[in-house]
Amino acid sequence: MSTMPVAYRNQAMPIAASKRPASAPGVVKQQTFGRVDARSDPAWVRMLVIASAAIFLGLFIVLPLVCVFTQAFAKGVDAYFAAIRNPDTLSAIQLTLIVAAISLVANVVFGLIGAWAIAKFEFVGKNLLITLIELPFSVSPVIAGLVFVLLFGLQGYFGSWLVAHNIKIIFALPGIVLATIFVTFPFVIRELIPLMQQQGTEEEEAALSLGASGLKTFFRVTLPNVKWALLYGVLLCNARAMGEFGAVSVVSGHVRGETNTMPLHVEVLYDSYQFQAAFAVASLLALLALVTLVIKAVLETRLMEE
Amino acid sequence: MGSLVGILGYRRGAIPGFGITLGTTLMWLGLIVLIPLAALFLKTTELSFEQFIAVITSRRTQHALMLSFGLSFAAALANLVFGPMVAWALVRYHFPGRRLLDAIVDIPFALPTAVAGIALTTLYAESGWIGRVLASFGIKVAFTPLGILVALIFIGLPFVVRTVQPVLEEIDGELEEAAASLGAGRWMTVRRIVFPTILPALLTGFTLAFARAVGEYGSVIFIAGNLPNYSEIAPLLIVIRLQEFRYADAAAIAVVMLIASFLFLFVINGLQRWSELRTGTRQ
Fold first, then answer.
1. From first to last of its 283 residues, what are the pLDDT tens digits of chain B?
2. Which residues 195-254 of chain A have a CB within 8 Å of chain B?
3. Residues of B in contact with A151 (CB under 8 A)
4. Residues 6+ away with beta carbon under 8 Å from A197
5. Which CATH superfamily is domain B49-279 in?
6. Are residues B15 and A153, on separate chains, in Cβ contact within 8 Å?
7. Burial letters for A39-62: b for 16+ Cβ neighbours within 10 Å, e otherwise?
8. Interface contact flag, A57 B105, Cβ < 8 Å
9. Using CB atoms within 10 A as the burial measure, which of A70, A145, B70, B195 is most buried?
10. What residue segments make up the domains of chain B, in order of their start?
């Protein structure tokens, strides 16, 4: 194989690049002489594809993001911070943080437990179990909210019992948390299972044979081995939990200052024509998305090492 | 649980905790996912068969379902053009800003759907940056089905790019060189060597983008305008039925959506297996 395609591939794979041998400087030179080989396209094709990709991504993805921030600051910095310091906005931020925190703890605890069962043991029906765990990915968020209304809503299966016992789930925090856990169900566990399967059970067996208890083995051997994958799952789970709209919208009831999470508050403000305030709150969520992507890039490098 | 563990578990012995962890997992999965989904199917049994048919064949429901599935299909098709193009540029070419472009692809994954929804609506409304330009050509995007299509392309793009990209990176360069040395032109090499290799990944990406689009709600409802029988998507109709306390009707529409999505996934899965066998990429 000629050396040039290797040079190409090195450039194309930022993550794996460090693991490949560095290409000789001479190889890159050949490229600048415009040598045409089997894997390179004519210059005009290259230009056309790069330009189309850049224009497409710019128009379809970057422009909406730019729009969020320009609209948020359309009436100046003071209006921006006034919108964010509004009591309803602050309570939406608080509710979002609470819901995300509860969902994260639940997903981490049950994700670790589930990954232990699935990755460390062989049993009948394992693939079916994994499919069922990933099921929430292919269910519409609206349906995720709907199922809890059918169970706990006023006319739901447990509706009258809940009313009789004065317990509120729908149009209250528990319903929002349940719907959020449903849509984020696969996020943590799916990062853990492949890694734990790949790591096998030898290190755990060694620890156990040296007299460590099962729990101690888990906390001292297994957990440190999967910490970056766990963080990766937590990061993606958090982004989805804080940004979830459809599922939460169905169960929340949109009570301003009480059951509005940040995305719902964005909707309420937008629908009441307070566009600048809506975009100000939206800009916080957009910022969350950008920070998530930066941390994700850092974690991916760590994951390659793990 | 004990006897069940005895029957199902193989690797008992050194590693402890099989019964308790599997039991907890099944219980949690049951409580959060399976029982609630079962309630959905149970709710539809409150309708007689005739009522069920009447709900799902009503003009409004039919239109909403056709719109959701049709536009999701169209958006996934559009991403089959844009996705590989972006992936090709990112994998094969070295140019300034490539890393940035690569990072941008993930934004629709990470950006909350409501934020995407209001931003796209503002851009494509007749007074918006893009809408103004399009309006001068007489094209209306926001508050029409075309607007829904734009939102669905937006959220579907990363699914296609991120499934095709790793396969493009792994393609054996020697095959392409062999084809070229045997006299194949560049276009023929791409068509006969590269395309069949990435076909299974294209199908996977298409499926993921489609499945996501069918159920999408947040990014669509702002830009759609939501006129019944014109730009009202199925998930929104479910929400409307819920607000009218017509729970069983809402459940019936949801059940049809779920079953149709699963049938579609099943067909695409079969197609994918077929293309993998045909191109010998299946392990």
1. 445 555 555 545 578 889 999 999 999 999 999 999 999 999 999 999 999 999 999 999 999 999 999 999 999 999 999 999 999 999 999 899 998 999 999 999 999 999 999 999 999 999 999 999 999 999 999 999 999 999 999 999 999 999 999 999 988 778 888 888 888 788 888 888 888 889 989 998 999 999 999 999 999 999 999 999 999 999 999 999 998 989 999 999 999 999 988 888 788 778 878 877 876 655 4
2. 201, 204-205, 208-209, 214, 218, 239, 242-246, 249-250
3. 35-36, 39
4. A118, A119
5. MetI-like (1.10.3720.10)
6. no
7. bbbeeeebeebbeebbebbeebbe
8. yes
9. A145
10. 1-44, 49-279
